[in-house]
Recover the amino acids of this structure.
């Protein structure tokens, strides 16, 4: 056990929702003093960098939390217990209509470790072909746009791509990771 | 107004905490149908990529949400209304003891746009010098470690660096952004 470990004394659920749960736990600092820890529980997300003929598929959608439209790689929340790779394959197909022969894992990262337990599984689509069109959830409204990878990288610098997972995916790809 | 805009009908606060607030809003989809939107409010974060003599300063700390130690660039939550650059400067000094003559903005990104309004302001430290040692909050337990930038980039590939803002910062730096 590390010298920095904090122990859970009691998990206290405040809210159980559709996307997130919220806890405010009683915990113990490494020196034994009590503390509170606010934790957002999230089942995790899966996303796909899909580059075809040098163009990356980005999804433009309104994000309620910011009141803005964002450009993001296709992504979605995991169902509890779902294989992240299958989820990524499904989201690619549903949001863009594209099909990948396989997905290559790029990385798994933690978007907001200070208060959330979400893990994001990032894949690259291999051998992409046209599928049979979008299949959106009833509350999804989005548009697929294609950008040359170099242009998308430049859009990060201009603040036109602001989504963290999309930035990580594009930069990993550009570095030939 | 975009064709994808969702309207707020009513904001409903479920929890107001120290780090986050939680709302479950009544909202309206672009086609006029009602929907719920679970939103985590967060005041935003500021973080600093600090490279000195080719070595990047990373902070090792236990993250309660994951029950793991993570390596991250120095970072902290904004106080309400605080200038992100001043917050980044403060966190660098408090967590590492290092001082920067100035900070260069790298980017602003959105770590989890599906359910949180957090914005992360990312800076690069310029002209770094030794300060007067760490000044940690009473509930902060962490250790500063230095890694050659190339080694840190390799650690992303090996899953030894998993924090999203740290991955984004290192890759932006490596691409000479």
């Amino acid at each position: 056990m590390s010298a920095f470990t904090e122990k859970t004394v009691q998990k206290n659920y405040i809210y159980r929702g559709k996307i997130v749960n919220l806890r405010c736990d009683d915990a113990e600092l490494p020196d034994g003093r009590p503390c509170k820890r606010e934790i957002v529980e999230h089942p995790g997300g899966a996303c796909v960098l899909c580059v075809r003929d040098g163009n990356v598929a980005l999804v433009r959608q309104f994000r309620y939390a910011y009141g803005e439209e964002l450009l993001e790689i296709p992504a979605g929340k995991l169902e509890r217990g779902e294989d992240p790779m299958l989820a990524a394959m499904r989201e690619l197909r549903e949001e863009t209509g594209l099909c990948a022969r396989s997905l290559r894992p790029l990385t798994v990262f933690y978007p907001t470790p200070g208060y959330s337990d979400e893990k994001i599984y990032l894949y690259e689509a291999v051998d992409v072909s046209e599928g049979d069109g979008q299949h959106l959830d009833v509350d999804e409204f989005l548009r697929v746009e294609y950008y040359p990878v170099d242009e998308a990288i430049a859009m990060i610098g201009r603040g036109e791509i602001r989504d963290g997972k999309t930035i990580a995916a594009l930069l990993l790809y550009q570095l030939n990771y």
